[in-house]
Amino acid sequence: MKKPLFGQVSDLDLRLLRVFRAVVECGGFAAAELELGIGRSTISRHIKDLEARLGVSLCRRGRGGFALTPEGSRIYQATLRVLGSIADLRSEIHDLHLRLSGSLQLALFDKTVT
Q1: What is the rounded average pLDDT of the residues 1-8?
Q2: What are the structural domain ranges in the chain?
């Protein structure tokens, strides 16, 4: 494996983490293929790239099926937190744009003739 790139998270890493989350939640590469709309070879390459970036093996795959390694399980939990935080941030930004702000001035004129 390549030397891991600790502390450097890029947009590519977020995409790889999303693929990893889908593989785990779908229970393997074949089911994730349908969920993600990309081929198994692409999914496999993404997982290998993520493993290389992190410097750990995330899962075992093969005839015995798909299984997370202990490191993969920890990374999966961290992935859920990171992607959840990003979703929270997007929601917060959306809410900010929906709120009205500024000042409103009203004037009332009495047109009553006595």
Answers
A1: 59
A2: 11-87
